[in-house]
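Chapter summary example: a protein plus manganese (II) ion.
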Amino acid sequence: MNVSWPGADYDRQMELICDQLMHARNLFSIAHPFSDGDALGSQLALYHFCQSTGKNCISLNFDPLPDQISWLAGSAACQNDLPADMQFDLAFLMETTEARRMGDRVSFFPRARTRVHLDHHIGVVGLGNINLLDEAASSTCEILYNILERTGVELSRDCREALYVGIMTDTGNFRYNNSTPRSHEIVARLIGDDLVVDDIYKRVYEHTNYHRVVMHGMVMARTRLLHSGRIVASWLKNEDFTHNGAAEVDADGAIRHLSCINGIEVALLFKEADDNKVKVSFRSTGKVDVMEICREFSGGGHRMAAGAQLNGNIEEVMELVIARVATALEPVLAPARGDK
Ligand SMILES: [Mn+2]
């Protein structure tokens, strides 16, 4: 069930979650693969909350953390397994958009007596015993803040910093339309008198390395405008990564260089992956619902930002996906032609 803050339904869910949280002794959290600021931020905020309330909380994380967020306090305490003999009262599934996209992480779910699923994505099915799914929230960190605020516990600086980074990154540093009065209100409280926001900004957005610059440069150099400039596409092959000694994370965010080109409707970035697979990132400027297209390829995301993984070589996949996006553009472009 999707609920929106504020409201009676939201209150009821929060009350159930707060009750579980305050009574739990041993907890763990899981989020989607390849953490972004919101996924890791929500895991670490819960971790710090538990630290300050005398609870044991394990942040399960299985992937290398991007440099932009790995400096957050508590990152080093992430683990890739749970002690076999420990009983867990409660697990938080953060941004667990679909069970099958969670891979082996799913096997940890039953280790907790109660599972709480928090998410702000559209069309997500609750995977918890208690679900708080709020599409109007900017981020999972915003939903988690609502819960933690309700406990009445004073949030530590580390906890507030993790939540801040989650909201900041999911709102594109407060530029996207999910930057609501509520998210700003929350952020004002998180900053308090001790978060140094310009320092956080620099660490997240002005933190780069040689490999990242090279990979982003390759994406930009290969930019192709298609369909009268309505579609923009670029690609990265496995050999680009190996040749430059770069990791997948170094290409993160590269699609932003494409999606801000004037006049485009859809930006596509194709990345070769192992086992004859290709990862495709989609961005829309608003008229095309890229989540709907990604769903056809067993992917998901938001209306304006989504992704999917397809089988095949990169040339085949590019041809297939570009043709599908072109079809989606037809109704969008039709009225424009009529205007002439
Ligand atoms: Mn998020």
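Key point: The radius of gyration is 21 Å.
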